[in-house]
Amino acid sequence: MKKRIYEWLFFRIMGWTISGTFDPGIKKSVIMVMPHTSWQDFFIGLFSRGIIGVGMHWVGKKELFRFPFGWYFRWMGGAPLDRSGGLNKVDSIAEIFKNREVFRMAIAPEGTRKKVDHLKTGFYYIALKANVPIIPVAFDYRKKEVKVALEFYPTGNIEADFKILLSHFEGITGKISQNGYCTQKILDI
Where is the Phospholipid/glycerol acyltransferase domain (predicted)? Predict the structure, then answer.
């Protein structure tokens, strides 16, 4: 029932579409979501997750998961990030992947909704360390389309891999287009 409501709102009322799909057999992955230019991206992601019907997750500092909101953040797919014991963020998140049977972590490589001139590379190194694929997902506000690409397994050659990953985002327009990351910077290397 909830899925039908999501579909009605997302497709009929909001006028969005979803192209591509998630392979439900891939239980662990890093979902690379771009461009991230607006608070509205969160809701586009929630609707997409509800329609696609595949569990998707996110990480946040462990303090977010305390009473009274901890249950809500977990219910929304959140996983507390514990960096105690000297682990860096990449190692801590790779540990979450190791300890869960299903974990599909959505992350925005820009790290902010503001204009950036470079992407954070943590998502890439998390996928590499956890030995999981990266699934590029684009939110194109101009076409009102969520584009899901096929999974990509990082090779360790970040420059070559970024060219492949970012090609999925060519021509994509974020909600606040001037804040969108310019994929051409990497693609022209």
Answer: 30-142
